[in-house]
From TrEMBL:
Source organism (scientific name): Fusibacter ferrireducens
Entry keyword annotation includes Metal-binding: no
GO MF assignments: ATP binding
SUPFAM superfamilies, alphabetized: P-loop containing nucleoside triphosphate hydrolases (SSF52540)
Any one Pfam family match given in the protein's UniProt record, by short name: ABC_tran
Origin superkingdom: Bacteria
Ranges where the ABC transporter domain occurs: 5-241
Full protein name: ABC transporter ATP-binding protein
Length: 258
């Protein structure tokens, strides 16, 4: 399978503490991948290395057959969009202006947005069901709406890859499902490669093509949800016992702590 992202022998440390330990990873183009693991397992640090916010101590990250550090910032932003945990804007812009910020990689110095840029932003708002919010301020909408706006801004970059760091944290179950269903739709319809960190095991199992299970800065297991989320792996990583329950309406099983 063609790789959207290839990681080889990646190692990262803060000061003298190893946070990521020789990560090797092949992310197929067009796949939906969730990274799971306890707090402090290295999930967010891995994402930050992928998008070049952090630089590895050893190893390499390859995006579309090119080392990530060789991309200029605007080139990388056309290839990859990132929605950080609790993403927000410092100023209280209206929603349309926030979404249009996603066109920055395409706008030359001293130029403003074109009609094409506005059309692309409008289409992104339609896809994320945020067009009706365009004149509202970003701080005047709900948390679930704000998260959809941030995804719309990311889509306006027209990326091949979307990275999401805990996109459903602090949201109630209604908005959690809305966000993940939206991401799955974008993944299927746009062939958009999505990598997200999540805490909810069952939601990750339901929506993902592949799961990366991490602990102590290492990858414990990679594979299809039913291959990775076994009683043994969950006990090993989370130190809890579970039952694996098959439900007819879902392809992958549900995990129930006992």
């Amino acid at each position: 399978m063609v790789a959207a992202i290839q990681i080889e022998n990646l190692k990262f440390k803060y000061a003298e503490e190893d946070v990521l330990k020789y990560i090797n990873l092949h992310v197929p183009k067009g796949s939906f991948v969730s990274i799971l693991g306890p707090n402090g397992s290295g999930k967010t640090t891995l994402l930050k290395n992928v998008c070049h916010l952090l630089k590895p101590y050893e190893g390499k990250v390859v995006i579309s057959d090119q080392l990530v550090e060789r991309f200029k910032s605007k080139e990388l932003a056309r290839e990859m969009a990132v929605v950080h945990q609790g993403a927000n804007t410092e100023f209280d812009f209206n929603v349309e202006d926030v979404v249009l910020m996603g066109r920055f990689p395409y706008i030359k110095k001293f130029q403003s947005e074109t009609l094409e840029d506005i059309a692309i932003a409008t289409e992104a708002m339609k896809k994320t069901s945020t067009l009706h919010l365009k004149h509202k301020t970003i701080k005047g909408i709900s948390g679930g709406e704000r998260q959809r706006v941030m995804i719309a801004r990311a889509l306006t970059q027209e990326p091949q890859i979307l990275l999401l760091d805990e996109p459903i944290s602090h949201l109630d179950i209604k908005y959690q499902l809305e966000i993940l269903k939206l991401c799955k739709m974008l993944n299927a319809e746009n062939n958009l490669t999505i990598i997200t960190t999540l805490h909810d095991i069952n939601l990750a199992t339901r929506f993902s093509d592949y799961i990366i299970l991490m602990n102590h800065g290492e990858i414990v297991e990679i594979g299809k949800p039913f291959e990775v989320m076994t009683k043994e792996n969950i006990r090993r990583v989370y130190e809890v016992d579970v039952e694996i329950v098959k439900m007819d309406q879902f392809e992958n099983p549900m995990i129930v702590p006992i």
